[in-house]
């Protein structure tokens, strides 16, 4: 897909603030500092549309990025950052649960994990949460360029096993530095959007 237009259109904390366009939405969930913003920026070939931060836990809202005036990437608050208070974590948790369970235009979730490390308990809990609510999802393993190519299979299958993924196709290795996985990610996204458009026309 050629991205001509991309902009952050709003940051929301409750349903009254969500966009009312009816466009398909693809959510990105993952631990703080796992590379969600970098993933978005690489996909749309922009250096800094999605805000990256050296301070984990800074994203505290649902950030809606409108792409080609046709669909949204929705960056949700990162989890697993110890310095965020229990009260704040509980508030984020409620906000995410509301979005994931009530948003009809949410079509897919990308669970972002770090390719270098085995998924954390928080990653596993998020995956279980997504599955519990029967949401379609895929796992994006970022920073694969940090691991020697000869060890990719080892890391790939370690992540797949830890998350109990149903198939190899459920996991995409990704690198913002080399572009690894970029084409696979876009192929997946285009399929999601096609399905949404076809369903809307029925």
What brief labels describe this structure?
single chain, 202 residues, alpha/beta, 7-stranded mixed sheet, globular
Q: What share of residues are in beta strands?
A: 15-25%
Give the helix/strand class.
alpha/beta
What are the segments in which pLDDT stays under 50 over at least 5 consecutive residues? 52-57
Q: Note the main sheet.
A: 7 strands, mixed
| Number of helices, counting only DSSP H or I runs of 4 residues or more | 5
Question: What separation lies between the terminal Cα atoms?
Answer: 24 Å
**Helix share, percent:** 25-40%
Rounded Rg? 16 Å
The string of secondary-structure elements, in order, is: EEHEEHEHEHEH
Organism: Trichococcus collinsii
Function: Necessary for normal cell division and for the maintenance of normal septation.
Keywords: Cell cycle, Cell division, GTP-binding, Magnesium, Metal-binding, Nucleotide-binding, Septation
Cofactor: Mg(2+)
Describe the structure in brief.
The chain is α/β, with parallel strands linked by helices and 202 residues long. Helices cover 34% and strands 21% of the residues.
